[in-house]
Amino acid sequence: MSKPLEGFRILDFSQFMSGPMCTLLLSDFGAEVIKIENPPIGDNTRYGNIIDHEVSSHFATRNRGKKSIVLNMKDEAHKKLFLELVKTADAVIENYKPGTMEKFGINYEVLKEINPGIVFTSISGYGQDGPYASHAAFDQTVQAESGMMSITGPEGGEPVKSGGSIADYSGGLMACIGTLMGILEAQKTGHGRRVDVSMMDSLIFCLENQFSSYLMTGKVPRPMGNSYASSAPIGAYKCKDGKSLMITVGTDAQWKTFCEALNQPQWYANEGWATMTQRAADYKAIDAEVNRVFSRYDSDEVADMLFKGKCVYGRINDFEAVANHPQVRHRRTIVNANYANGVTFRVPGNPILMSDLERETDYTAAELGENTFEVLGEVADQETLHRLFDPVLEKAAEAQKAIYSKSK
After folding, report:
1. Structural domains of the chain, count
2. CA atoms of 42 and 182, how far apart (whole Å)
3. What is the tens place of the pLDDT at every residue in 266-309?
4. Can you name one GO molecular function term for this protein (predicted)?
């Protein structure tokens, strides 16, 4: 069965993480994503986490399944070829610092004159306008600016960033959604959209629970470790074998079930712990009681009691445990990303499963400029392309070789 986005073409200027995660999702569901890389080195993630054989697991993870061409947008001949490609595309996606595409002479007004149905999506730290628009940004700095770090970490401790690149991922997801909505609009009306995604806006959206509470009460939230402001017990509790389980009791009904599963009727009978609000206010006392009971049993024993009692819990797994997790294996969450030189990386796959669509488990990660002649052959003759790009690709190969040699 065909994939939902087959027949759509995406011109992808993005690099690092937020943009590539957006276009990765589009590619996974059938869109032809043409990654446009600036010579001579292309996307910088080609040189991150180089494990062996001069290839990067980071690049493979985010760019599997895409084509790669090289274009120097400061070169008028290259820019002309890009504008010809725009006529064939459904969307252009970029995550440069705001103003960079303008320096190339590229903006939505220019693109829609060439192709009225084009969607032009930009991802940036803080948006395309406003007092912070010109600020450079990475995931960690946006976590700081958005307030994310201010509520993350141990109670009373220093602010801590999330272990994952949540600002990049949330920005990329929002950009994917915005791009798809723009494409749907273009199908209905013939006119595309300008899509402006701010990583800071995206992360604030993800913090809606804590942020809305602050906006209503004026009370600034602080780090609570693994606890939660609105209910208890929620946290990681250590068992007799030294392993901890993460517990979430989010409703009064779940509190009753939890007490029954652990055979602690006195907890449920405590009138001071009858409601979520009461338990949240007394969470330290509740945590002490839960730790006391958990310390009597090994983690497997506690997990068995909680599972039989239909409670909500999770084991605190490291990546080795996750990679071998029975549910991860069942859903084939880990896939292969293959390079032309024969190197294969095992990487996280697309998390979205759809009916009548077999999960793909093998992808190719393109070499820098690998598809230049194939793609640009649609808009120029081969003689012209060889004249323009043979020296460019030769210099790119030399630059890559020099970078890789320093990485060994």
Report:
1. 2
2. 28
3. 999 999 999 999 999 999 999 999 999 999 999 999 999 999 99
4. CoA-transferase activity
In a domain, 234, yes or no: no
Catalytic choice (12, 90, 168, 287): 168
Range of the domain at 382: 7-205+331-405
Give 72's contacts (C-beta < 8 A, 6+ positions apart).
38, 39, 78, 392
What percentage of the chain carries pLDDT values higher than 70? 99
> Do residue 260 and residue 392 come from a single domain?
no
Q: Are residues 157 and 96 in the same domain?
A: yes
Annotation says 168 is catalytic: yes
Least confident stretch, 166-170, 196-200, 311-315, 400-404: 400-404
Q: Hey, what's the torsion of the CAs at 108, 111, 115, 116, to 10 degrees?
A: 20
pTM value surpassing 0.85? yes
For residues 183 and 157, the answer to whether their CB atoms sit within 8 Å is: no
Q: What is the CATH number of the domain that holds 149?
A: 3.40.50.10540
- Answer whether 299's CB lies under 8 Å from 243's CB: yes
